[in-house]
Amino acid sequence: MRTPTIFPEYPIAQIDKCCERLKVKCGARILSYYKMDYSTDFPKLPEVAPAAAKPLGAWSRPAVGTKQIVHSFILAADERANKVKSFPGNTSEEHKKCQAVAAATGTRIELSESKDGALTVVIKGLRSKVEDARARLVRDLQTQASRDLDIPKDHHRKLIGSVASHSWTSMCFSNTVTKFKSFQGKEGAALRQLEADTNCRITIPSRDTPSETIKIVGPREGIEKAVAYIKSVSERESKLATEHIVCPRIFYPFIRGPFNETYDKLTLETGAKINIPPSQANNEVIVITGEKEGVHKATAVIRGIISDKQATTKSVTCTVARAQHRYIIGQQRSGLHTILRETGVSVEVPNEDENSDTITLRGDPSKLGEALALVYQRASSVITQQIPAPTWLHKHIIGPKGSTLQSLIPNRGKVQIDFEDAGTIFLEGAPEEVKAALSVLSAEVARLQTEMSIEKVKVHPSLHRHVIGRGGTLISKIKDETGVQISIPNEQTNSDEIIVEGKKEGVKKAVEEICAIVSKIENEKSRDIIIEQRLHKLIIGAKGENIGKIRDAHPNVVLSFPDVNKKSDVINIRGDKSEVDKVYKQLQSLAKELAESNYQQIVPIFKEFHKHIIGKGGATIKKIREETQTRIDLPEGDSGEERITVTGRKVNVEKAIDQLNKIQNELASIITVEVDIPVKVQARLLGNGRRLISDIEEECGGVHIRFPAEKSDSTKANNHICRLLSSQKMFLTIFKVTIRGPKGDVEKAQKLLTDLAKDKEVNLHEDVVIAKPEFHRFLIGKGGSKINKMRESYDVRVMFPRETDTDKETIHLLGKKEDVVKVKKELQENIRQLNETVESTIDVDTKHHRHFVMRSAAVLREIQEQNGGVVISFPKMGSDSTTVHIKGSKQCVESAKARIEEIVEDIEKQVTIQVEIPSQFHRALLVNRGQKIQDLQSKHGVLIRFPERRFESAEDADSHAADMVTISGRDTKCDAAKQELLLMVPVSKIINVPIDMHRSLIGRGGETVRKLMQDCDVNISIPKNNESDEITVTGQSENVEDALKKIREKIAEFEALAEDRKLRSFQLVIDVPAEYHTRVIGPKGATVNALRAKHDVQISLPRGEERSDQITIQGYEAAARACAAEIDDMIEEIRSMFTQEVSIDAGFHPRMIGTRGKNLKKLMEDYGVEIRFPRDAADPNLVIIAGKSEDAVYDCIDHLRAEEEEYLVDHVDRNQYISTRVQEPPKVNKPVQISNAPWQLDIGSSEHFPDMGAAAPSHVVGGAWGSARRW
C-alpha cells in the first residue's frame, strides 16, 4: 500500500480548511473520513519559464555576492551651493567637503562636473555607509530653500506621532520612492526621523503659541517630500471623527446581540471602531471612532437600539441556587447568548463574589415567560453528586490507564467524573447517568475500603535509607512477601511518613517489619573517641587479640580504626546505644591506662656499657624489666646509637632509668659538669646540625653534651634578653651546658668547649674536602690514628659525615685559616693517592675458594664494601690456580689482602664437634625457617648442621646418627654455641584444665591459644573431642613456666566470668496489662532503653501478634527487682490518671496533630494531658485524653470541640462553590481519502502515459558468441 505524499506547497492548514468545507457540505451527516479531490484541493502551480543555467566549467566557482554598492546622484547647476570651479593644482570647496565626508563614513566618493555645470556624485561602500554619506553630501553641496506651511493646530500632535503610528508610507516624487519606516520612541522622535529622511529641518510651533505655521528648511526636493507627507497626514486626520454615547449597562447585551452578531455586523458595515465597556465595569460610555460617515451611521443605529429598548423592555426576577448558575451561563456564556437569540431577552446572572441567588431577565414582556422557562430548563438539565472516597483509593478505582473506571462506567463520555484531592469523587451530567454512575462507584468504594487499607508509618528521613536497603533489596523483599505498595518520600521533601497500602493483612505485616527495622536502627548509636594513634596498635593487639575481646563481649558494636597513613586519632564506635556507651567507657579507660603505661623517656648510656646492662643471657635487663614493669629497647649492636628507650608508667620509667644509670656509674666514674657558654658562641657551636658538638663527643670518648632546648620558653626569653644586651654592647647572657661521662673524658670536653668560648669574637675559618665514602676509613686511620695525628699537628677540627647525613662525601674543616689550608692540602694528597689504582695478587688454596664465592659471593662482597670497592677476582671453578687478583687503590688493596688472609687462617683453624639432641626436638629448633639457629650462627660465627630427614624414615638407619647435630667453627666459639643450643632443647609439662574451659582457652578460631603460644614461644597441645582435661605445654623451660602461669591466670578469669554469668541470669516476670506496654516502651523505645541502661538489665516485651501481659526482666537480682518496682510505680501513676474518650471528626485529626506532631505536643504541654489515637478502634473519630487533673482534661476537650467546629464551618464554606468544569469533546483523527492523485494513475494506460515517439530499431552485429547484452 502506497503512502500519500504531502507536498510542502500545500500546508496542513489548507487541508484542514478543505476538511471543514467538506464537513459543512455534509451537514448533520458527518462522514467517517475526509474526501478530497487532488485536482481541485491541490491546484496546479503557475508555470514559470526555467532560468537559463550557466554551465559551470571544471574549475569554475559559484559567484559570491558583494556587500558593497554603488550609488550616484546629480546636482543641477542651479542646485549647487558652491559654483566656483577648480583650477589645476587648486582644490575646490566641494572637493574638501567630499573628502571629509568620505573619511567620516569610510566610503569612496568621486565627483564629475559636466559642461552645463551639473555635478555627478558617485558613492561606493557598504549600504548603510553609502546612505549616510549621501545624506551628508546633500546637506553640504545642495542649495538650501525655505517654505512655510499652514496646518491646523490639532493636527500638529498627530503629525509628530504619525510616523510612529503607521508601519510605512510610500510617496513618489521625481520617480523616487521614499519610505518612512515605523519609529517608536519618545515624543518628537517621529519628527526627527522625517527630518533625516528628507534632509530638512522642520520647525513646528509649540503648544502655547497660537501660530499654525510649520517652517521647512532644506533642499527643494526634500522640502517637496516633507510638504506632501505633512499634507497627507493632515488630510487623513480631517476625515476622522469620535462619538461618545451614554448607555445604561443593562442594554449592553442588546447592543452586542447574541454571540456579538449585532456588534460584528455594525463594525463590518460602518468600518468604525466601537468600544463597549465590559458589564462589570462602572463606565457607561460607549466610544465610537473612525471615518466620519461610518461613525455617524454607527451612532444612529446604537442610539435607536437604546431608545427602542428603553420604551419596550421590562424586567422580571427569579431565584435559582447559586450552584446551578454556571449551567445557565454555559460554556463561554453560550447559554445566555442562546436565550437572547431565541427570545430576545437578556439574562443577568450575579457574579460569584455576590452572595445572591436572584437572576434578572430583561426584554419584551411577551417573551419573558418563554425565557424564564428556558432558564429553569437549563438550570435543571445537569446535576452533580459527590462520593466520599479517600485519596489513596482513587488510583485503584481508575486503574491502569483508566481501564478499571472504564469497565465500571461504560458510558463515561456522558458523565464527567473528577477525583478531588480533598477525598471526594465529583460526578456531573444528566440525572439518569449520574445516578447510575453514583450507585456503581459507591459500591466499588465500599468494597475497596473493606478489603484494603492504608497505613502511614512515621520514620525519620535519616532512617529511610536503612528501610530501603542496599540497592532497594530490603524494601523489595517486603513488597514481594506482603504484596503491598510502599511509598517512601523523596529526600528533598524531608517528609517522615512512609505510606503502606494494599490488602489489610499485607499492610499490617509490612508495617510491623518496617517498625522492627526502624526500632533496631533507632536503637543504634554512633560515637567518636579520640585516642593517640600510637596507641591504636596496642588497643588492637597482636593479630587483633585485644580488639577481638571487646568485639566478642559486644557483638552488636562495630569499631572503625583510621588508616595508618591518615594520621588520624579518631576511632568510630557504632552499634546498640547501651553497648556503644559501655565500649566508649572501656576504650576510654583502656586508652588512659595505655597512655599511663606507655610513658616514654630516652636515657644516654655509653656503648661499652650496653653489654653489662644486658647481662649474661639477658638476665640483667630482664630483671630490670620485671622489677619496673617497663619495656627497655636497646639500639642495634652495629649502630653507633647510644640512647636506650624506656617505656612504661612514668614512675616505673624513672625507676628503670635510675637503675640503668646506677649500673653505668658503678662500672665507671661517671660525672656531670656544667659549663657556662655565652649565647653568641652557643649559636656557632650548634651550627651545621650540631656537627662540631658531635665531633667533640666522639673525640672525648663519647661524652654526652647537652644544650638547653632551643625552642623552650626560657630559651626564647633568654634570646630576647640577649638581643637587648647586644644592642647595648653587653654580651653577658650565658647558658648552662651539661657534660656527662667518665671523669677524664668530661675534663677533656670541658677544656675544648672552654677554649672555643674564650674569645666570643674568634674568627674561625671553615672549608670542605670532597672524598668518596669508601676512602674515609683510610683517611681516619686505624683507631683514628691518622686524624688524631693531624689534630695534634694543627689546631683544626676535621669532621667526617655522619650516618644520618645525606651528603656522604663532604668532610668539614674548622680552625685557623692557615692551619685549615695545610690540613686541606694534606687530605687532598691522601685522596689523590687513594685514587691511584694498583693491582696485587695473593695465593689462596683452592679448597677455600668455595667459602668466598658461596651464597652469591656474600663474603667477597662484604670485603669489597669494607675496602673502598676494590675488585677481587678468584679463579674459575674447576681450575687448579690459587692466584687471586685484587685491583684498586693501594691502601684499599692492602687492607683487602689482609682481610682475606685473616679469613683463610680462621678456616684452617676450624674444628667440628657433634651434639646429641633427640630427633623429635629438631623440628622445634628449626621453626620459622630456622631463625633461631641462624641467629645462633651469626652470634658465634659458626656453622650448625642438622641430620637429613631421610635418616628418620629409614628402617635400618642408626638412631644415634639421626640425633647428632654438627657444629663447625673456631674451637672457642663452637663450645659456646653448643651450650646455648642445648639450652634451646624443649621440655614438656602437663597442666589440668577443666574440659568446659577448653573452648574458652582455644578462643575464636584458635585465636587465644595461638596468641599464648606466640607470646611464650611454646607449643600447647589440647586433647580433641574433650577426651581429657590434661593440656601439654612444650618449649624451653623458662618459656614453659611462663605459659603455665598465664594458663592458671586464664583459669581463674574463666571461673570469675562463669560466676558473674550465673548471677546475671536471674529472671523476674511481672504482669503488666498489654494496654500499658506502649507506655513502658515510650516514644521510639526511649523509656524502656532508659530502664535498661539505668538498671543494667534486659527487658523483654511481647512482640508482634503475641497477646500477653507478661514482661520478663533479666539481670542481677537486686537490679531486676529495682527495675520491676520502677515499672510498677509507672503503671500505678498511669492508672491514677483521669481518662475520657471523645469523638472528634477524623478530618480534623491532621490539623490537630500538625506538622510532625507540633500542634499535638503544644496542646499536651499547655493542658498537661496525654492524647492518643487508637489504631484498632472501630470508630475512626475516637480520641482518648488522659491527665492527672480532671479540669485539665475537660478544658482540653472544650478546646478541641471549638477547634473542630471552626474546622467544619471552614470545610463547608470551602466546598460550597465548585468551579466550572468543562469537558472538551475528544479529538478524533479521521483518515483522509484523496482521489485523482498522480500516484493513483494507471501506469499501463496510454492516455495517462502516452508514447514519446517510436525509436528506430538498432542493428547490432553479434560476434562469434552471439549479440552482446546490455543491462
TrEMBL record:
Signal peptide: none
Protein name: K Homology domain-containing protein
Coiled coil spans: 817-844, 1037-1064
Residue ranges occupied by any K Homology domain in the UniProt entry: 143-235, 239-307, 312-380, 381-446, 451-519, 523-592, 597-665, 669-758, 763-832, 836-905, 909-986, 987-1052, 1064-1132, 1136-1205
Alphabetized GO MF terms: mRNA binding
Keyword match Lipoprotein: no
Pfam families xref list: KH_1 (PF00013), KH_Vigilin (PF24668)
Organism: Necator americanus (Human hookworm)
InterPro entries the record matches: KH_dom (IPR004087), KH_dom_type_1 (IPR004088), KH_dom_type_1_sf (IPR036612), KH_Vigilin_N (IPR057778)
Subcellular location: Cytoplasm
Keywords: Coiled coil, Cytoplasm, Repeat, RNA-binding
